Structure formats: C-alpha cells, structure tokens
Amino acid sequence: MTEQGRVFGKVAESYDRGRPTYPRAAVEWLVGAGQRSVLELGAGTGKLTRTLVELGHDVHATEPDEAMLQVLRRNLPDLRSSLGSAERIPAPDLTYDVVIAGQAFHWFDLEKALPEISRVLAPGGTLALAWNQRDESIPWVRKLGRLIERPIESMDPSEPLLDSGCFEGVEHGQYSFWQTIDRQSVVDLVLSRSNIAMRSDEEREAKRREVLAFYDDYGRGMDGMQLPYTCMAYRATVVPQVPARPTAPPMPTTFISSDRNALTDTAQALPRILDSLPDDGPDSGGSSSMVLIDFR
Q1: 47 near 72, Cβ under 8 Å?
Q2: Residue 2, SS3?
Q3: Domains of the chain and CATH, by start
Q4: Is the CB of residue 229 less than 8 Å from the CB of residue 176?
Q5: 23 FRET partner, CA 20 to 30 A, in 125, 228, 279, 290?
Q6: Global pTM?
Q7: Euclidean distance between the first and final Cα of the chain, in Å?
Q8: Coil, strand or helix: which one is 172?
Q9: Is the pLDDT of residue 133 over 70?
Q10: Does residue 217 register a pLDDT over 50?
Q11: How many Cβ atoms sit within 10 Å of the Cβ of residue 148?
C-alpha cells in the first residue's frame, strides 16, 4: 500500500462517521450466491464488512492501519480480523472463495498484491472490487466535489487484472444508492479524504469551516441531505495455479583421462565410483548414470 494510503488512521473516526456504506445488491453480486469464505483487504473501519457479515459470509477482515482496525474491532467485536496488507496477506495458500476490497484497490502495489491475492484464492475463486462514486451530475454535489479538491477515487481494474496473468473473465456492474448526510457527517466525509487528512491542523480547520458554510447554503436543517452515489463493482476469476514441475537431479558423470597414471588411479577408484551411483537400472524408472572415458 502506498504511503498516502496509510494516512487514514489519523482520521479513523471521521472516516467511520462520514463515509457511505455499500449497497446490499452490489455486495450480493460481488460475492455470489451461498455462504462463502471471504477475505477483505483494506477493510478500514468496516463499511463493507458489515454488509458481508449481514449476508452470512465467513469473513476475515484485514487492514494495514492499526487505528482503523481498532474502530473496526469496536464496531464488530466478534469478527475475525488482523493487521495485514494486500502485498503480504496473513493467510495460507488456496484458503478463500472470495477476496474483496472496497475503496482500497487503487492504493495497492499491484505487482506484489495480485500474485498474493491469487495465492490465497481457492480454485475458481473470485477477486471482487468496489468503489463508491458521487454522482456529480447534480450541481450541489459537483460543488462538494470541488471542496474535496480531488478526483473521485476509482479505476477500471480490468487491464491490470488481465495483464497480471492471475485473473480472467472480468465483469462489471453499477448500483445507484443514496447516503443521508447532515451537518456533522458532511464535514467528516470531507475531512476523511486522504488529500485533506495529510494537511496541517490549521488547514484542516479552515476546510471544516468552508464545508459548514457550504452545508448552510444547501442543507435542509435537521432533515439532512441525500447524497447520490454509484457503486462501481468489478469481479474476476482467479487463473488456476500450475504446479511447478520438479527438477530432475543432475546426472553423475565421471571423466577419465587417457593419461596412463590417471587411468591407473581411476581404474583403482572405479569400483568405489560405481558403488556410489544410484541403484536404478533400466526397469526401476529412475535416471541412468553414465561414465564417460576420454580416449584422446
């Protein structure tokens, strides 16, 4: 995970209060039917995790930031969770039906993460990825985006997934939903963005006042506002791992010179050499041994 992706610990509480969840229909499509064993990478404070648990899946949530993980464990105290990154997954090979990440894949070091994800997926397993994007076709949402000062964090992962050779059959789905925000949660939403979290306390306070002024212009008092989102969902199937072929042991070879003295010494040593060779004759299925004599 990149260094900028590790700044969220300082805004973990704002992240938990201000970020949207994920629509249930999107999560159902990403994970598939039936109860699955699911590894979540970059779980944060558990925004996606809650829905996975509600759907009855066996979930192991991992998060590289200790402060974010503490909030997740407070929210979901009975959940199996651990400190870990996509580049070094704390799990054995061929363990999970699904590996999933919400709003996190763009932070991964893909050269390291994709082989790791492939390693822990069972045959036929799924990599599932999701991003929540604000619908900025609406003027006030577009103005909110300008306050955040950063493009929407999303990407089409199809090309890197296919180029890696680890995944195939990338599919894409879109799911619209609404997040209810109020005067406090809209501030948390903005302050939880990585580009804002990296700023000084003075700069963050100035941004907080700016967001409150925006809400007072557009908000509806205690009724709050409905912030429109589209969940961009992707899933791909892991390519079966081909076991490495065992390397045949080197064939023992003895070179004997035509020099008379060397030939005499070798003739005396030959019984010992032959005794040391493996006893795997033509019918044994093993590799044959060979003695080469140089008659030059």
Answers
A1: no
A2: coil
A3: 4-238 (3.40.50.150), 253-293 (no CATH)
A4: yes
A5: 125
A6: 0.80
A7: 63
A8: strand
A9: yes
A10: yes
A11: 18
